[in-house]
Write a structure and sequence with these properties.
alpha/beta; D-Maltodextrin-Binding Protein, domain 2; six-stranded mixed β-sheet; five-stranded mixed β-sheet; 14 helices; 50% helix; 19% strand; globular; DctP_fam; TRAP-type C4-dicarboxylate transport system substrate-binding protein; signal
Length: 332
Amino acid sequence: MKWRSFITLSTVIVFMTACSTHASEEDEAIYELRLGITQNADNAEYKGILQFKEAVEDRTNNRLKVETYHSGQLASVPDLVEQASVGAAVGTISDAAMLGDMKHEFYMLQSPYLFEDREEIEELIHSSLFHQWTEEFAGQGLRVLSFNYFLGERNLATVNPILNAEDVRGNVIRTNGSQIVNAGMEAMGASPSGMPWTEAYPGLQQGVIDGVEAHHLAIYESSLYEVINHIAKTNHYSLTSALVVSEKWFAQLPEDIQVIVTEEAIKSGEHASELAQQTAEEYEEAMKAYGIEFHEIDTEPFRENVQPIYERLGLRDTVRQVESVLAEEGSE
């Protein structure tokens, strides 16, 4: 009896030791994430993910190590999104239009002239409707950590002047190739040409394209002011982007690290947005000094011309949902 009791006690001790060791190993496990963006090291996006890296590593006591890459060093944004969707420990900052090619509801954030200002975009992002969209997106293998990278108004930066809606016609404009952006450019009168951002400069230099639709940060930091002459302030949408990672990768993180990652992603977006607003004003003045002419134009014809795209892309019901959310927020 004493011998059997000893064996039983020994078994319990071994079991408890094993459980304790397993828990300790989980606490001490090292997780890794590689984040890459297309823009350069001076860009607000990159400074945002640098803040994310530092805060996450500090708060997790380096249990989660984050490597950051700029200027397309890791891979292109579409490639990183694809890698993340199949479980790779990578992430990126993707604009709403690219993600909208995977889940069309996200097109709303990059639809031309749908929102009056950034406040309306934030109302949608904080709504239960948008939360539902991001939760559904997990089924496609992607986790939206934050959708609050507000990087600036998109305008038309061109070789020839655009002073009114008629002047857009005949211009070949570089886009990211997403369906909603191409449709918007076509409705505004341009001929969209989807190409990687890194090809925009030589494309303008060689006359392959006549301009780009872009925000000040992208234009200035890619030195496009050297190969354009004019920027028409069409303000056709405000660039809103998300920090996305693999849902599979995120799910295997301990719960405390999941919380930290989510909280710091939101803070990184806020930081990048503040920097973007500050630098956009500085960049406009710098480009004016370089000789770039800025033009304030009547955008009402563009607003009217883009309305049919929602019917054509099957987005009318989604637009109504967004308008309902904004109406509810406006009545409170």
